[in-house]
Write a sequence for this structure.
């Protein structure tokens, strides 16, 4: 059983769980053994298309590589098989093995895709008979009657009750589909260092009589903000996503997870809220004060695209919630992609939905051409002046 090291960089999900300590099993009571039984059942009933793993002796580190702690006590696969399958109404396919990771013992419970639903024939410990336990993300829950029915239907007629989903890049603002290959042209400006950029000061007078003045609302950082804004304005390109349900079945709780390898750190992804507006030479402190009702509304609205940076990759999640039959749904938010060099990258994506028995696998790609240009303060001021004139015309 080979365990991909990449699993240590992933977060807990419907296909992965980390346990810092070994399960209490040998000489344990029914309640303690029930914890192991519940976890195996939950993964066996999860909506997924790929194998699931419980890694024992690993401490999860969110946003980074998880820590290998190791275990001392080992479990016996044959005893686990007899224990679990004597309690369930149908056999559960799983395997236990001890492997060595970073010179430490790690327990691995490997759970391939099973026929569902699976539940207990009798109460055991705190677990109830006839209840279908299911893994949702990083938590375990009880499946609803509708979900249990859907599991049974998927076994009887697997192609009739599963939505057909497909996703690609999009111009989310204008609701335009852009396909699975995105070709971008960007500009990399060679800008001065921050300490080389002078403070902004207004000038009054005529000709040789002009003098620098400082007013209460003058923005002394205006030039530095202008350089930073146009550096990213030229370098970053906006990206959104679209998903289409071409079936006659509603897709519930739809989300996409994409991983992008970037061990050399040749590009950057960032969210739209980190891209500032045009800098201003004068500060109006009142314009940044929003009504309390608007502030509360903004706090409640969660972005539908989330970006996370791991040590050697980017992780992007896009949420669509419910997608109706024959609907084409666009993300309301978008993100920015900023390459440092010419590059061609691949986004390995998985589509998840509550009524997909397993995630769908898709691949998107971005091809970028980067042009290098001078980004002196005078050049950036000229650039800004031309854009302002264009917007006024």
């Amino acid at each position: 059983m080979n365990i991909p090291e990449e699993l240590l960089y992933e977060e807990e999900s419907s296909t992965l769980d980390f346990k810092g300590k070994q399960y209490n099993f040998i000489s344990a009571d029914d309640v303690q053994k029930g914890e192991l039984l519940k976890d195996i059942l939950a993964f066996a009933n999860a909506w997924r298309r790929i194998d699931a793993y419980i890694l024992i002796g690993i401490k999860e580190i969110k946003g980074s590589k998880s820590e290998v702690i190791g275990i001392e006590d080992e479990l016996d696969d044959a005893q686990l098989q007899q224990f679990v399958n004597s309690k369930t109404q149908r056999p559960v396919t799983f395997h236990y093995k001890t492997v060595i990771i970073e010179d430490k013992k790690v327990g691995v419970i490997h759970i391939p895709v099973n026929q569902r639903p699976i539940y207990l024939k009798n109460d055991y410990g705190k677990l109830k008979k006839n209840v279908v336990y299911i893994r949702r993300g990083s938590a375990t829950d009880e499946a609803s009657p509708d979900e249990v029915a859907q599991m049974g239907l998927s076994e009887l007629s697997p192609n009739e009750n599963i939505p057909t989903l497909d996703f690609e890049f999009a111009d989310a603002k204008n609701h335009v589909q852009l396909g699975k290959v995105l070709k971008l042209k960007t500009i990399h400006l060679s800008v001065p260092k921050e300490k080389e950029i002078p403070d902004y000061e207004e000038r009054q007078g005529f000709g040789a009589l002009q003098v620098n003045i400082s007013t209460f609302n003058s923005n002394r950082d205006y030039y530095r903000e202008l350089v930073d804004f146009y550096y990213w304005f030229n370098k970053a390109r906006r990206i959104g996503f679209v998903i289409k349900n071409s079936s006659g079945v509603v897709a519930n709780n739809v989300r996409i997870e994409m991983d992008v390898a970037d061990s050399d750190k040749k590009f950057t992804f960032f969210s739209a809220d980190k891209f500032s507006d045009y800098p201003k030479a004068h500060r109006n402190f009142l314009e940044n004060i929003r009504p309390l009702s608007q502030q509360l509304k903004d706090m409640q609205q969660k972005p539908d695209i989330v970006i996370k940076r791991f040590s050697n990759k980017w992780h992007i999640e896009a949420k669509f919630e419910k997608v109706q039959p024959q609907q084409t749904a666009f993300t309301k938010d978008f993100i920015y992609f900023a390459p440092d060099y010419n590059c061609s990258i691949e986004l390995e994506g998985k589509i998840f939905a509550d009524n997909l028995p397993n995630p769908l696998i898709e691949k998107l790609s971005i091809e970028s051409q980067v042009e290098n240009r001078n980004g002196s303060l005078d050049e950036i001021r000229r650039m800004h002046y031309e854009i302002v004139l264009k917007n006024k015309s």
Summary: The helical segments are 30-45, 77-85, 145-156, 222-235, 292-300, 377-392.
